[in-house]
Task: inverse folding
């Protein structure tokens, strides 16, 4: 059943890619078949986080929850910047009012947690400079494609700050403890090739082929049933907080529940044995 937030946003239906469901906002959402796109865009300045943008991301996630034929989502940006983190107005306001700052940080992290738990694969297509909250949204996505000219880093320490949006937790799980410490403490940027070598990003793309590369990656996912993708994603995400034996026990339980409740699994097995293509699974 859709969430209350999702039901409130049910008016945000999408048709073909190119239609804007959130006109005038900082995130534009569009559809192309089973792919949902979220694109950071604004008329002036650089892409940064605000409460308005967090609202947009939540509406974007509502669409994923509500539109059951969506199989994957791509998050990218226009221009030469992906995202530079929380905007200076929000930071200045927060430094004057720490109660408000705490509310903002809670809201930011709630949205990143929700993105991380999205029921479909999420792909960050990093087109340009990315730092602070920008790397934190990348870390909340499942995989990342990065343009060759892009640079990415945490960079909080360069302003004598520490992360507050998940970098200290998600970055070590992505690239390991020593590299995470180095990247956070140094405050430096990685170039695109380094980011792939370190495991921060999944694939390198020519600048003019970034979106096509992300779409090609998504194409290897979206031919599977949505529930299949969700079940495996939830198990993988939970693996980092569970002992291996407990995780394997959960995997067995979830497998049996899945096979019993989704008949297309049996059909796919029989199709494989008969060397035929399985029937399309809509769930």
Result:
């Amino acid at each position: 059943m859709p969430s209350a937030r999702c039901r409130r946003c049910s008016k945000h239906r999408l048709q073909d890619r190119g239609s804007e469901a959130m006109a005038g906002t900082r995130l534009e959402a569009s559809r192309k078949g089973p792919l949902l796109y979220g694109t950071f865009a604004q008329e002036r300045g650089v892409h940064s986080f605000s409460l308005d943008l967090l609202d947009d991301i939540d509406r974007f996630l509502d669409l994923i929850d509500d539109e059951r034929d969506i199989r994957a989502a791509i998050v990218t940006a226009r221009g030469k910047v992906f995202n530079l983190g929380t905007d200076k107005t929000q930071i200045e306001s927060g430094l004057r009012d720490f109660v408000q700052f705490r509310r903002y940080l809670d809201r930011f992290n709630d949205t990143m947690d929700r993105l991380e738990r999205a029921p479909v694969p999420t792909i960050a297509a990093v087109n340009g400079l990315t730092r602070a909250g920008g790397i934190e949204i990348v870390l909340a996505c499942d995989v990342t494609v990065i343009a060759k000219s892009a640079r990415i880093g945490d960079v909080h320490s360069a302003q004598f700050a520490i992360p507050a949006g998940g970098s200290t937790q998600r970055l070590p799980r992505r690239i390991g403890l020593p590299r995470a410490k180095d990247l956070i403490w140094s405050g430096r940027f990685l170039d695109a090739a380094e980011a792939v070598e370190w495991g921060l990003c999944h694939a390198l793309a020519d600048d003019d082929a970034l979106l096509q590369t992300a779409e090609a990656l998504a194409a290897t996912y979206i031919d599977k049933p949505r529930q299949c993708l969700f079940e495996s994603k939830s198990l993988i995400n939970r693996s980092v907080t569970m002992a291996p034996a407990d995780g394997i026990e959960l995997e067995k339980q979830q497998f049996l529940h899945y096979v019993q409740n989704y008949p297309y699994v049996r059909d796919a097995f029989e199709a494989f044995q008969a060397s035929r293509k399985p029937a399309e699974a809509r769930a």
